[in-house]
Specification:
56% helix; 2 domains; two-stranded parallel ribbon
Length: 355
């Protein structure tokens, strides 16, 4: 059988660029080959194809210089490098708050004993919008190292296949309980977010108070915004961690239906950052700008966020005289920032400083 996507050498890949109306300037073949060796043809060309005008047979119209694609890819990488530490900081802060209030409310024992039911007891988690059972089952597996299963209709246990830290292993073996602040360090961001979702209202409000103490919106709106924000941040974290283009994933092929509710407009309370018209046009919902809004709203007194926002603002100045369209296309069309992104970033920095 003949492959419809056969192997091509780097030389053949360079030749193929011209078939798609991508211009390789004279004496730049070595640079183009270097880019192909670092990123791969698909990740350089196809990943951003949907954001650039092209014909049905995948020819760019008008012709595009190769440097345009390498610039977009490098900005994509720079953005990922800027955003990942911010998302991890937000994740850690959220998980610290969650584990603190779970321990404060339900104690430190993961299993029940006389006088205390244990913080993973189903009785602590009323069924509201979703069943707590799957989440609690997975949390107990992390805490105990045991996976519960059924064999011939009988309940059985077997060693868990989850890999955990030496710290959690030590608590399992040498202590009589695994406290929430130890457990939370080994579970995924997604599992921590689901744990938060099944918690009773008093814990949700306590976490909200830690992350967003001064609010311009109602508590119910803020709780919904935090839940949405956790989904958006988790999507970006997974995208970056797997090395996927954050530009392509969030704008063209969303990994989920998660998006921020309109209350984000009231939360920032500045139309120079985000207006109702901006939101109606799709900005601040599930794009990269929405992630920046989540981090700005729910992160407190973190100089790293201010520094990162300044770095993102500087991306707007990565102009190349060869491409007079690069600023608009990369920042607005490809990345998805609203117009006047320079001003919005400056206003977002002010918002963070004045919280």
């Amino acid at each position: 059988m003949k492959a419809d996507k056969p192997f091509k050498t780097y030389g053949e890949q360079i030749a193929k660029l011209s078939d798609h109306n991508i211009i390789v300037p004279n004496r730049q073949e070595a640079y183009v080959k270097s880019m192909l060796m670092q990123y791969g043809y698909y990740n350089l060309v196809n990943a951003y194809q949907d954001k650039l005008e092209h014909t049905d047979d995948e020819k760019f119209c008008p012709e595009r210089p190769f440097n345009l694609f390498s610039t977009i890819k490098q900005i994509d990488e720079i953005l990922s490098g800027i955003l990942l530490p911010l998302v991890i900081h937000f994740e850690n802060t959220f998980e610290t708050s969650l584990s603190y209030h779970v321990a404060e409310t339900f104690g430190v024992f993961h299993k029940g004993h006389p006088g205390e039911r244990g913080y993973l007891s189903p009785k602590n988690y009323p069924r509201l919008n979703m069943s707590p059972t799957p989440t609690l089952r997975k949390l107990r597996e992390f805490a105990t190292g045991l996976h519960k299963t059924k064999h011939d209709g009988q309940d059985e246990t077997e060693p868990s296949r989850f890999r955990v830290s030496a710290s959690l292993e030590m608590y399992r073996e040498k202590h009589n309980h695994v406290p929430p602040w130890i457990l939370v360090n080994d579970i995924s961001f997604g599992l921590a977010a689901r744990w938060y979702t099944i918690c009773p209202p008093e814990i949700k409000r306590a976490v909200l108070e830690d992350l967003y103490p001064r609010r311009n919106i109602t508590d119910e709106e803020a709780l919904k915004l935090l839940r949405d924000g956790l989904d958006v941040a988790q999507d970006f974290r997974n995208t970056i961690a797997h090395g996927t283009s954050i530009l392509k994933t969030r704008l063209s092929y969303p990994t989920s239906d998660s998006k921020l509710s309109p209350s984000v407009i009231g939360a920032v309370n500045d139309t120079a950052i985000l207006s109702s018209r901006d939101y109606a046009n799709g900005y601040g919902q599930s794009d990269i700008f929405s992630l920046l809004l989540v981090l700005a709203i729910f992160t407190n007194e973190y100089e790293g966020l201010l520094s990162a926002l300044r770095d993102i603002g500087n991306l707007n100045r990565l102009r190349n005289s060869e491409f007079i369209e690069i600023q608009h296309m990369v920042m607005n069309d490809v990345i998805g920032f609203p117009p006047e992104s320079d001003l919005r970033i400056k206003k977002l920095i002010e918002f963070c400083r004045n919280k």
